[in-house]
Design a protein that fits this description.
single chain, alpha/beta, five-stranded antiparallel β-sheet, 17 helices, about 25% strand
Amino acid sequence: MNSIELKPSAHVDTFSRDRLPPMDQWAQMNVHYHSYPDRLNVAVELTDKMVERGFGDHTALIGNGRRRTYKELTDWSNRIAHVLVDDYGVVPGNRILIRAANNPALVACWLAATKAGAVVVNTMPLLRKAELNKTINKAEVSLALCDSRLLDELQACLPDSAFLQQVVAFDGTANFDAELDKAALNKQVQFDAVQTSCDDVALLGFTSGTTGEPKATMHFHRDLLAIADGYAREVLQVTPADVFVGSPPLAFTFGLGGLAVFPLRFGATATLLEQAPPTEIISIIETYKATICFTAPTAYRALLAAMDDGADLSSLRCAVSAGESLPQPVFDEWQQKMGKPLLDGIGSTEMLHIFISNRLDDAQAACTGRPVAGYEAKVVDEQMQEVTRGTPGRLVVRGPTGCRYLNDERQARYVVDGWNITGDTFSQDEEGYFHFAARNDDMIVSSGYNIAGPEVEACLLGHEAVSECGVVGLPDDERGQVVSAFIVLKSEFAQSAQLTKAIQDYVKATIAPYKYPRRVIYIEALPKTETGKVQRFRLRDVSLCQ
């Protein structure tokens, strides 16, 4: 039974606290690892308090062609908070949905809504009416703030929605030419932020699940600071001199942490890209001398290739890889060319951010690292018994953050015996380091052998002809499943039976022969999520339709 006693809420609208999971379904949480006052508003900590500490003239955000200092960000978010409360009647606890690409205007809206005591729901710009409706209905959102360039899909939700009452446009291009901006220009730059409880819900993070009903993860004000005071402080060792760049959307907790919470917590600078292909990331690194990069392994492969064409990435002091397991060939090439850490790690929307990671002075290939300070993890069997070192099993974790699904029976499946079950297969070596094998549903069982798809992918990436690949198990009458590789070839190679055999022979010679892909399918591009994860379920669907 969990013994956490929540501090009194400041929410007038008690929707979120009323829909927290039953306390006996919570993970055991190390809430005292980081010490926070009972009254805590994370947006104030990241803006007003930073100005008080002397960071007012430091650059907080770079995006859409201009810089914004901490004082400018503080003042602008305070003006918007006034509009939300004075003009739109927002009360603490109301849910506010925000729709925009990664830009400073989105960050200002998120901070403003949080200062007003609202519970923020950040959404990706690619979502359509049907997907937005699910989010609106789940969170019972009545007010949405939307980049004026992305209004259509949200406005289409209005006529039939039982909850959404108003969509207010803001100017994502920073020209202040939209309804919210014009109203904010007439407001005061001082705002008495709601003194929310450290245990009040500040953010609903919707999972990027591929099918079914979306899950909303509930994160408190203290959770948002805990990921910065844990991972960003201990692992990344962020300083005010750092400049962040990356590709994950702020709508995902990985992006919100890496491109907003982390830099703002330490007086550093975040550069924000509405579109973040590798060419744009390179441009930001070269122009603003970025020091910390957040992106997926596939993007790091592109950055490495660009270095051969003269790209200057020398300002980076470290790079963070997440979303997919970091293949050893990418790690090795980065070390060879950069001589600086490329940190693999694992996090989840449920846990808010990364909870196991390599370290700047202790990064290994094919290794996810050790738990972030305050977290503990182990590898267990189906009965939740810890397995012997080196044996693959289910990864479970607990620490300062943990899974809280909004009014969802799936809570009882994610948290068992006080541990968060991440859905990943890992092993732990004798030295205590964790090694990723596969997502539990990415394990391929072929002729009685358990084969981790990511291991085969990492092997394939070592072949000279392979640019990208995804490996899944496809149904087979004889073997149950057959290892199947979807391969994107480098431009100088053409598919042929001879090349297929050469690739298969390479795998047989590099890892255990039974793991080689019996099926090889060449495709133009891999299906991916916004964060760069390969959508293996789509590979399975595509193949079954062939």
